[in-house]
Amino acid sequence: MIRLYDYPDCPFCQKVRIVLAEKDLEFERLHVDLRRGEQKTAEFLKLNPYGKVPVLIDDDVVVYDSTIINEYLDEEYPLPSLMPEDSAGRAHVRLLEDFCDNSFIPPAGVVLAELHKPEAERDAERIKRYHGEIGRVLARLEGYLEGKQFLVGDFSLADIAFVPRLVILPQLGVEVDARLQSVASWIGRLRERPSVRSLGL
Ligand SMILES: N[C@@H](CCC(=O)N[C@@H](CS)C(=O)NCC(=O)O)C(=O)O
């Protein structure tokens, strides 16, 4: 029995839900209300001392941090495989997941936070600056994707890491530069996957 401590809008929880869907795994979804601080209760901190979602429980195994959860799921439920077979490929996937966590998710989060404010209170300069950062990440991804369907070999955990924020680029007010053709078709390809559609974004 798999249980996922989850928050609907969290990109890290969404990453894990994509993997569960790709592997067609049934799971129970437990809502943690971050706005009410449920992630910082003594009970929750026993599961994840960092007090963050997602947390996955598989029978008696407790795993937290989306990247580690996704690798756990890929090893425990190997089909379909979401990691390359070779060590170099796996290292490349991990580097891209790290790049996503450090360079893509944070600026997208800043823009989202600005857009959640009433229009009069938004900092247009800040939005512009972080749009620029997102654009630079997309340009770098174009280099990785040229002539390829996915970032590293077949569809992998690297692609999945980017999905939650990629699919809401229009909501963030980001238009993919027309020169980034590989990125545009990659996003189209990702959007078609049932696992991605199941996020309902
Ligand atoms: N590195 C973690 C990040 C998880 C994370 O930042 N989760 C956020 C929600 S998107 C959270 O639980 N925040 C609540 C808090 O920090 O109190 C992962 O990949 O799972």
Entry keywords:
single chain, alpha+beta, 201 residues
Q: How many strands, what sense, and barrel or not for the largest sheet?
A: 4 strands, mixed
Number of helices: 9
Order of adjacent strands in the largest pleated sheet: 2-1-3-4
Distance between the termini: 26 Å
Q: Could you list the spans in which at least 5 consecutive residues all have pLDDT below 50?
A: none
Helical proportion?
40-55%
Shape: globular
Strand percentage = 5-15%
Give a count of the beta strands, DSSP E runs of length 2 or more.
4
Query: Could you spell the SSE succession in H and E letters?
Result: EHEHEEHHHHHHH
Q: Supply the helix-strand structural class.
A: alpha+beta
